Amino acid sequence: KMINSDHMINDGLTDACANNGQPTWTYNQGVVLGGLTELYRATGDASLLTTARTLADASTTRLQSGGVLREPGEGDGCTGDGPSFKGAYVRGLGRLNTQLADHPYAPTLNSWANSAYTRDRNPLDQYGPHWADGTGSTDYGCQQSALDLLNAAG
Q1: What is the pLDDT of residue 80?
Q2: Which residues share a beta bridge with 117?
Q3: How far from chain centre, in Å, is Cα 49?
Q4: What dihedral angle (degrees, nearest 10) is formed by the CA atoms of 132, 52, 22, 76?
Q5: Phi, psi of 121 (to 5 degrees)
Q6: 64 vs 61, 125, 140, 154, CA distance in Å?
Q7: pLDDT of 21-35, one tens digit each?
Q8: How many Å apart are CA 152 and CA 9, to the nearest integer?
Q9: Fewest beta carbons within 10 Å, which of 1, 40, 78, 116?
């Protein structure tokens, strides 16, 4: 099973269908959160939201650095697919948050969005890869993730 003992989703399975122990990329978490939310909407099975909350509680805690979402091994560049991973995560977390009556992840999403806006945005309103400190380049992957964050927090 791809969900490890920390309630995080690793990046794949071995040939024997065991967890491969690879990184817990943000998009792995977000895709599952979004999927569980949509499956709940289709079936009404509340246990899906319970599972999603468990996974979201783990990932919102374990994927932060300095109180802000950070991709494992996050680099300074914004090209390629890696910089878009955080966008997939916040889309899934935002979808789950909207579905839950108590909106438990709104404070976290808002905090991350405020940090990105104030600390990782240049005078041309371009965002970089590090929502907590504003170092790094700007390009399409970072813009997409920042837009997903601002939409999820909105």
Answers
A1: 86
A2: none
A3: 17
A4: -20
A5: -130, 135
A6: 6, 23, 22, 20
A7: 999 999 999 999 999
A8: 21
A9: 1
